[in-house]
Mce associated protein (Mycobacterium botniense), 198 residues
Amino acid sequence: MSPRRKIQPGERPLLVAPTGRPSRWWTLRRPTWQLRSRQWGLPLTAAAAAVVALAAITACILMLVSHEADRRTTVKDAAVLTYVRAFMAEFTSIDPFHANDYVDRILDQATGDFAKQYQDHANEILLGIARAEPTKGTVLDAGVERWNDDGSATVLVATAVASKSPDGKQVIENTNRWVATAKQEGSQWKISNLLQVM
C-alpha cells in the first residue's frame, strides 16, 4: 500500500504554489511614525546603552579612587600610630641607672620645637631622671586626631606609668594623656611636639 493519496479528476490540489507577487498593502499603508521609529530605534538604543555603560565605568572609577585614598590614609595612620606607641612607651619608661642613654635616645627621635626644648633642658632632665625611681610605661590607647598641612600627624595618647614606692613595697600607677605631633623625615618618623594634657 502506498502512502500517497491519489487526486481524483476535478479535485482541488492540497498544495498550491503562489502565483504572482505577494501583496504589499501593509508596507504601503504603514504609518510614517512607525517607519521613523524603526529607522531611529537602533541608534537610540545604542546611544542609551553607551550612556549607561559610561555612567557605570565612571562610578567604578570614582569608587576605586575613593577606596585607594582610604587605603592610603589607613596605611599612614597605622605607620604613625605604631611609631608614636613605641616612642611613648620608651619616653615613659625611665631607668635612672642609664639616664644618659635615655636622654640620647629621646634626642635621636626628636625634631623641631621638641628637639630644641629637650636640648635646652637636657641637663635638668638628666638630673631629674638620675634622682627618680625606675618606671615602666605602657600605652593604653592612641589615635590620630588630624593630619596637618605640613604632613605631620597630631596623635592623642593615653599612657599608664607604673613605679615602685621608695621602700619598694607598693606599686604606684599613674595614667596620663598626651598630644604628640609626629613628622616624617625621610623614612623615619620623629616627634616634633609633645604636650601632656591635664
Remarks:
- The mean pLDDT is 83.
- Residues 57-197 form a domain with the Nuclear Transport Factor 2; Chain: A, fold (CATH 3.10.450.50).
- The chain has five helices and four strands.
